[in-house]
UniProtKB/TrEMBL annotation:
InterPro entries: Rossmann-like_a/b/a_fold, Universal_stress_UspA, UspA
Domain named UspA: residues: 1-140
Name this polypeptide is given: Universal stress protein
Signal peptide: none
Pfam families, per the entry: Usp
Lineage: Archaea, Methanobacteriati, Methanobacteriota, Stenosarchaea group, Halobacteria
Similarity comment text for this entry: Belongs to the universal stress protein A family.
Amino acid sequence: MISRVLLAVDGSDLSERALRYALDAHPGAEVSVIHVVVVGASPIMGAAAGIALSETGADGILEAAEPVFDRAREIAAESDATVDTVVEVGKPARGILDRAAESDVVVLGTHSGSLADRLLVGDVEKAVFRRSPVPVTVVR
């Protein structure tokens, strides 16, 4: 039985779908929602992530992640569940993989839209899928 789920979110509709899946598929499991912030990324990457990344500092990083976590808490409350939240700074795949061993499964949403989505996010999905020490579920 799955008792600990690590769910990577980026604030997209697809990550919300992945959260709903995780809550439905693993009722009663402890769900940790991780949001990885890429500090020092190019302005284009920061805009794509919806986060102002120029020298945000720790407070700015936490502040940027809070709307993503607020939405995750709202979705969890709809299922009478709660979630723990984790912010990591750095490369998304590395941040997810660093915490994967603490869970029974990693759940990710996939982006199947634009070429930019497939290039940027697809690399994260592939890296996590290939190197995770626990099973990975990719939700479309």
